[in-house]
Amino acid sequence: MCSVPHWRPKMVAEQALEEILLSVLNLLPPWNILQGTLTLLCDAKTDGSFLVHHFLSFYLKANCKVCFVALVQSFSHYNIVGQKLGVSLTAARDRGQLVFLEGLKSSVEVLFHSQDEPHPLQFLREAGTGNLQSLYTFIQDTLKPADSEESPWKYPVLLVDNLSVLLSLGVGAVAVLDFMQYCRATVCCELKGNVVALVHDTEGATDEGNDTLLNGLSHQSHLILRAEGLATGFCKDVHGQLSILWRRPSRSTAQRAQSLTYQYKIQDKNVSFFAKGMSPAVL
Questions:
Q1: For residues 171 and 157, what is the distance between their CA atoms, to the nearest angstrom?
Q2: What pLDDT sits at residue 6?
Q3: What torsion, rounded to 10 degrees, do the Cα atoms 60, 66, 72, 75 define?
Q4: What is the phi/psi pair of residue 281, to 5°?
Q5: Nearest of 107, 105, 143 to residue 125 by alpha carbon
Q6: pLDDT at 26 over 90
Q7: Residue 269 pLDDT more than 60?
Q8: Sign of the alpha-carbon torsion through 73, 77, 79, 83
Q9: Separation of alpha carbons 12 and 9, rounded Å
Q10: Where is pLDDT greater, at 264 or 113?
């Protein structure tokens, strides 16, 4: 077991998530992002989709090639939020930087139209198999650069929103973990890129499959961001709490884990983070 010391956040009133992560990883701005990492996003009793929007805009601004497997919302939804964060998903898709798999739209095509070629969501027509090979092949073909071409992008990124949806569609937790292991081997190890995935934390509810998935990914992840609602209930000035855990190589142990906790408030065009008790409303 790794010891997990609790680090105190900087005592400033507000910080952006980018500043926090760069400080956590001891990296220099603007976009010197650690490569070859798996980042796990999870939410408990709150909506953690703001983390997905952040990482999507974060990597597009960093000039990375992004494959976005969106199983929850439509392209227009992500594009509207992205514009508030200073990026255009339409422009990124047109120039080939963003490959967007729209699960809501694609599922209708798979279920109600015949397919001449294997579809990334082919598993929807193969009830009980839980075979995600077609989805993995789609991601692999999307992010692997052509041998004869020099990629104009810094490095590839896979973003999934969210993996818990696969469980509700009948795919087993072990199959999803195997799928993520293949994605991690290809994107993180082979291509030296990053993988970011959101999973719901159904704490307090009996959901063995989701618990297995969350625990399995937690052990594999280099960085974990966990958003949760306040134990005291609704507050207009503080919307929730964000716990950040990251692992670094250590000489004494295989990995050394460290963590810190912030509170946050979601605003129209950004999310403000602050140490506990440092909300502008309190100050």
A1: 23
A2: 39
A3: 60
A4: -65, -35
A5: 107
A6: no
A7: yes
A8: negative
A9: 8
A10: 264
